[in-house]
Each structure stands twice: as C-alpha cells, then as structure tokens.
Amino acid sequence: MNRRQFIPNTVWVWGDDGWMIPLHREADPEGWARLCDSDEAVITQVDEGARDMGAQPTSSSSAPSVMREMIGALGVEPGMRILEIGTGTGYNAAMLAEISGSENVTTVEVDAEIADHARCALKDAGFSVTVINGDGIAGYPGNAPYDRIIVTASVRDVPYTWVAQSAVHGRILMPWGSDLFPGGVLLTLTARADGTADGRFASTVAFMRLREQRPRHVPWRDDVDKGDYLQSTARAFPREVFKAGSAARFAVGTRLPGVTDGRTLNQDGGHTFRLSQFETGSWAAVTPGPGEHLVCQHGPRRLWDELELAYDWWLGSGRPGPSRFGLTVTPEGQRVWLDSPDGPAGVRGRGGGR
Ligand SMILES: C[S@@+](CC[C@H](N)C(=O)[O-])C[C@H]1O[C@@H](n2cnc3c(N)ncnc32)[C@H](O)[C@@H]1O
Questions:
Q1: Which of 217, 218, 303, 343 has the greatest number of beta carbons closer than 10 A?
Q2: Considering its fold, how many domains does the chain have in total?
Q3: Is 104 near ligand 1, meaning CB less than 6 Å away?
Q4: Is 346 touching ligand 1 by the criterion CB < 6 Å?
C-alpha cells in the first residue's frame, strides 16, 4: 500500500508570505510525489475548504511514522473492532484495516467532501472500511462496542460517548491538550468495568484540533484599549510557560481550562504576553520589563494570578513532565491528575456527558 493512493491531487504548502497555497499534482507531479513519499504530514485541506489560499490547515495525512507510533501504542490485533475519529485521507484507516480486517474498521469524518474522498480512495485500494460522515464526538454507536478507538485530531474535552462505546478493557488513544497546548500529548485510556476510563500521557505530538474544540480567544489588544482593567506588577515572568511544547506549559495548561495565549509586538520592539478565556471574556496582558513586569487583568477570572499559582504548583511538584500526568473520564466529565488517579487535580469537569 502506498500513501499516494490516498492523497488528493491538490495538497497545500506554506508560501513565503505565511499563507498556505495549493500545490496541484498536474502542475508539479514531482513535488506532489515527494510530499506523498516523505515522512511529513501532508496538508490536504485549509480553512475548511478554501480553494486559492488559506491560513489554517484543517485536514491532513499525518506523518507515517507518527501513525505507526500511534497504531503501535493502540495495540491493534487481527479481528479487533476499531473506531477511528478523523478519517482524513483514509490512509490511517487502511493501515488499521490491514491489521484488523476491513470489516472491523469504522471511521468518522466531520467534513462531507473529505469523507467522500476517503471512501473512494479506500474502495479503490481494496478496503471495505465503513466511512461515516458525522461528528466524531458522537462516536458511531452502530458498530459499538469497540476494542480500540483512535482519534487523529487533538482533543481538549474527552466525550463520554467514546468510553460508553468501548468494550471493557478496550483502549482509547488520542492526542490530548489544553488550550495552551492544542497540538496535544498522546494519551491512552483503558475502559473499566465500572464505566470509567483512565490512563497516562506519553509523548508530545502536533495534531490539528477537533473542529468544535478549537481554542477561542478574546480579541487581543481591543480590550486593553477599552480600559476597565486592574493594573499591578509582577516580580517574576515564567518564560518557560510561554515556550511552545514545554513541560511547564503542558502542566499549567491542565490547571487553566479554556485559557488561550498569544503575544503582540510593542513599539519599542518588546512583546506583551496575553491570556484570555472566551466564555467569561476574561483577559490578562503582561509586559515584561527590566525589573518588574506590568500586569493588566480584566473579567471574573484573574488569569495572570491563576497562571502564577499554577506555575508555583508545578515548580513545587518537582517540575513534572507530561508522563507523570494522567486523565480519568467518568459520565460527569474528565479529570487530569498528577502521579495517580487520587493525586492533585488539574482540569476538572469539562467534556463528558455527550
Ligand atoms: C489529521 S487529520 C486525520 C488524518 C487521517 N487519519 C489520515 O490518515 O489521513 C484530522 C481530521 O479530523 C477531522 N475532524 C475534525 N473534527 C472532527 C470531528 N469532530 N469528527 C470527525 N472528524 C473530525 C478533520 O476534518 C480532519 O480530516
């Protein structure tokens, strides 16, 4: 089996100006083939279907080595019933079908055009996988229970439906991340006989988010300009929390549900670091200075204060990396923990119940 059989004739690459531009197979057959044969993710849709240029990748074929790592961690065996959330090109579904048998694989894709393409590609490659066009958050009860569920988009709130549709002792694998860490860290959950599921985090990955769980933020800068904020100073600025992919960022993110960040460039060449939480309209803007740092906060949640507390907790816990964390899902929601399911909690009560 070859990835070329699944990649559409138009793929997307980064242009020099920071936008994504299409690469058409007929215009650049060698460039297209090189991408398909590489161990890179190949972007196959931007901005949910833009044709000329785009800002955000919204579908891709993941890097083959990452897919192999995930399938390995999932522990797929012949005859197992498998649900994939995020069909994309269909290539990963084909890899699953090669191990467990086509008739045992169900895959759900939210985008109708992408689902159609994958259905045809899978059929042409000889796989009779069930491709469903729908919202993967609802799983697919029609073929449940599943021995294995694999999610190929990153998840912030684990829906209880996936646990409910798992066989007892079944495994659910996904990239999980808070809104500060949207690319995700691989998480393997095991479904328990009491109807809950739990498991631990492993390696950091970089996946696009499930469509309806994308981070949303309060528009940067607008709110500072409007006034109505508390001003204070901070003595320390925890730069590592703002570093992409850092252990501090992962840990702090588990304690700051729904909080996004960004930065804006100031006239003097320095940056203002911004936090926001869309649902409550809360935001914080922090401008590091030579001695102390200017902090502005607005809204019912004092996001900078929360971040300082979470960072102190992470330092006091011995600077734990993602592999010391785990997550439990119950019908009431999800809970992130440190070291053991009874350990100190991060995010509570989001997701579940759907
Ligand atoms: C990284 S791509 C999947 C890669 C794919 N497994 C492959 O082999 O090509 C993520 C996919 O998840 C889909 N997606 C996003 N949100 C979804 C949802 N709620 N339900 C189902 N699919 C979703 C996207 O449209 C996108 O096609």
A1: 303
A2: 3
A3: no
A4: no
Provide the residue range defining the domain that includes 16.
3-61
Put the strands of the sheet holding 197-204 in their side by side order. 130-133, 105-109, 82-85, 146-151, 166-176, 185-191, 197-204, 325-330, 333-338, 345-348
Q: Is the CB of 111 under 6 A from ligand 1?
A: yes
Overall pTM > 0.85: yes
Residue 79 CA to ligand 1 center (angstroms) comes to 24
Same domain, 171 and 108: yes
Evaluate whether residue 328 is within a structural domain. no
How deeply is 52 buried, as exposed, middle or buried, from its count of CB atoms within 10 A (0-12, 13-18, 19+)?
exposed
Q: Decide if 132 is inside a domain.
A: yes
In a domain, 335, yes or no: no
| Residues 24 and 96 placed together within one structural domain of the fold | no
Judge if the beta carbon of residue 59 lies within 6 A of ligand 1: yes
Residues 86 and 135 in one domain: yes
Q: What is the pLDDT of residues 280-303, one digit of tens each?
A: 999 999 999 888 999 999 999 999
> Which residue's alpha carbon is at the smallest distance from atom 20 of ligand 1?
136
Q: How far apart are the first and last CA of the chain?
A: 36
Judge if 88 and 196 occupy the same domain.
Answer: yes
Are 142 and 239 in the same domain? no
- Give kind and range of the element (H or E) at residue 159: none
Asked if pLDDT for residue 345 goes beyond 70, the answer is no
Distance 59 CA to ligand 1 centre (A): 6
